[in-house]
Amino acid sequence: MSTSKTALPVRSLRALAATNTSFTSGSLAITTGAGTSWQLAYGTPAQTPGAMSKSVVPSTTPTLSGLTTGTDYAIYVRNICGAGDTSGWYGPLLVSTLCTPVSAPWSEDFDGTGWTAGTGTYNGGDALASCWFRDPSAGTGPGSPYFWGIRSTATSTPNTGPTTDAPATAASRTRSPLRVFLDK
């Protein structure tokens, strides 16, 4: 007579939530049906869990530290019930770390690497640097609400803004609508 045991499958996770986000860390809450430890995978929203950084945590209330300010992250979690006994990945949970505050005086010339210039009449495909947003959102045609976009060439549309970029000099600070300043 032979006997065999079939291993019960690892129970799946029920929820993953962010409970606090700071400039360089994020605290999480994992709701689980089983597990003795948990593996977190975190990285850019475009990455899959297999390509992300990983960390094993012994608690259902872990904190991810050492994150970059003003950055979007996707976070996945899975149960670890024993050697080779893990659940599938649960997620993604999308979180953003806080942006670094700025102090006056401060200026932005929109020429850094975080700005992606758009193309065409409506600056299609432009992207703002992290920690910036536009309200209303970018439009895509003549019926769109007022908006501004990032462009690396002069605009040909009249009355829509400057036709060229101004250098970051003291004289241009009072004239160029492409610059943002925060004074005391």
Structural class: mainly beta
Low-confidence stretches: 1-9, 169-184
Task: Please describe the biggest sheet, giving its number of strands, its sense, and whether it closes into a barrel.
Answer: 5 strands, antiparallel
Q: Which word captures the global form?
A: elongated
Give a short overview.
This protein has 184 residues and is mainly β. Helix content is 0%, strand content 32%. Strands 3, 4, 6, 7 and 8 form a five-stranded antiparallel beta sheet that branches.
What does it look like?
The chain has strands spanning 13-21, 25-32, 37-43, 53-57, 63-65, 72-82, 85-86, 90-96, 106-108, 180-182. It has 184 residues and is mostly beta strands. β1 and β2 (25-32) form a beta hairpin. The radius of gyration is 24 Å and the shape is elongated.
SSE topology:
Elements: E1 13-21, E2 25-32, E3 37-43, E4 53-57, E5 63-65, E6 72-82, E7 85-86, E8 90-96, E9 106-108, E10 180-182
Antiparallel strand pairs: 1-2, 2-5, 3-4, 3-6, 6-7, 6-8, 9-10
Summary tags:
disordered C terminus; five-stranded antiparallel β-sheet; 184 residues; mainly beta; three-stranded antiparallel β-sheet
